[in-house]
């Protein structure tokens, strides 16, 4: 039976890159979803490990769409894959994370009568590289974010492994920006800036794997891409404050491990934007 408006087709897109140890668990978690109307599209974006061989074995068993390409980066890969996907709802998903079985069903049900919600997300449980829980998940209530909430960081944000987009919202803002390699924050800002809301369910919907190569551990990558993202909204009255707050936060985080980056962040902070984090960061990289 083809999907109806009550049972929309959800396109789950996994862009795989050097996650051979985790990719099978990621794919299998999509195949185990309780929601039936899913198409799975997997793209290997130039992996140098044995990811392709592992994915091909699963593809032969389950028949999902699988393509291999030279490395293009995540944003470009997502745009190209969305263009050939058929779903009205799009779920980009990390090749190192795991969906819980009811994830897609809960999000589809929530979105059914809420056309103003362009992105639906949920909470996460963190796991280690072996799949073991890292403490308990944060118990966070249902929250609905507009552009100001996201840009000013006024409410707890949306975990990337749980993002589900309306295709119409993605198309309205022109999709993902290949020039910004940290794609989640920018697309959330663009879609909420276009008038949609970002709603985050209280349910734990995915397991987020913490390991040595997580993007958030690359401080320079984070700094470069987040500041480029904020710069797209430089006409906002709070832009200087938003950038200063981010610089102070990253200064404190990287002061001990990357004092050169810390000094660069400090150089970009006007004296009147210094605070306790600034002083603590200075003390750390001077030791």
TrEMBL record:
<dbReference type="InterPro" id="IPR029044">
    <property type="entry name" value="Nucleotide-diphossugar_trans"/>
</dbReference>
<keyword id="KW-0997">Cell inner membrane</keyword>
<dbReference type="InterPro" id="IPR050834">
    <property type="entry name" value="Glycosyltransf_2"/>
</dbReference>
<keyword id="KW-1003">Cell membrane</keyword>
<feature type="domain" description="Glycosyltransferase 2-like">
    <location>
        <begin position="11"/>
        <end position="173"/>
    </location>
</feature>
<protein>
    <submittedName>
        <fullName>Glycosyl transferase</fullName>
    </submittedName>
</protein>
<dbReference type="InterPro" id="IPR001173">
    <property type="entry name" value="Glyco_trans_2-like"/>
</dbReference>
<dbReference type="GO" id="GO:0016740">
    <property type="term" value="F:transferase activity"/>
</dbReference>
<dbReference type="Pfam" id="PF00535">
    <property type="entry name" value="Glycos_transf_2"/>
</dbReference>
<keyword id="KW-0472">Membrane</keyword>
<keyword id="KW-0808">Transferase</keyword>
């Amino acid at each position: 039976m083809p999907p109806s408006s009550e049972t929309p087709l959800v396109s789950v897109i996994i862009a795989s890159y050097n996650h051979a140890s985790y990719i099978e668990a990621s794919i299998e978690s999509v195949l185990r979803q309780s929601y039936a109307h899913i198409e799975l599209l997997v793209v290997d974006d130039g992996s140098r490990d044995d990811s392709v061989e592992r994915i091909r074995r699963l593809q032969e068993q389950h028949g999902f769409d699988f393509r291999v390409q030279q490395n293009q980066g995540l944003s470009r890969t997502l745009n190209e894959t969305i263009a050939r996907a058929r779903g009205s709802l799009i779920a980009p998903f990390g090749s190192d994370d795991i969906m819980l079985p009811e994830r897609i069903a809960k999000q589809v049900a929530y979105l059914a009568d809420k056309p103003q919600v362009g992105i639906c997300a949920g909470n996460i449980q963190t796991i280690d590289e072996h799949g073991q829980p890292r403490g308990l998940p944060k118990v966070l209530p249902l929250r609905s974010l507009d552009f100001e909430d996201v840009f000013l960081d006024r409410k707890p944000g949306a975990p990337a492994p749980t993002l589900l987009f309306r295709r119409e919202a993605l198309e309205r803002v022109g999709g993902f920006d290949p020039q910004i390699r940290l794609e989640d924050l920018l697309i959330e800002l663009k879609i909420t800036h276009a008038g949609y809301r970002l709603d985050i369910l209280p349910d734990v919907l995915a397991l987020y794997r913490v390991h040595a190569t997580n993007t958030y551990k690359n401080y320079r990558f984070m700094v470069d891409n987040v500041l480029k993202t904020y710069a797209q909204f430089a006409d906002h009255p709070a832009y200087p404050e938003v950038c200063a707050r981010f610089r102070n936060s990253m200064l404190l985080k990287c002061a001990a491990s990357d004092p050169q980056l810390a000094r660069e962040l400090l150089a970009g902070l006007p004296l009147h934007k210094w605070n306790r984090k600034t002083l603590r960061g200075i003390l750390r990289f001077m030791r």
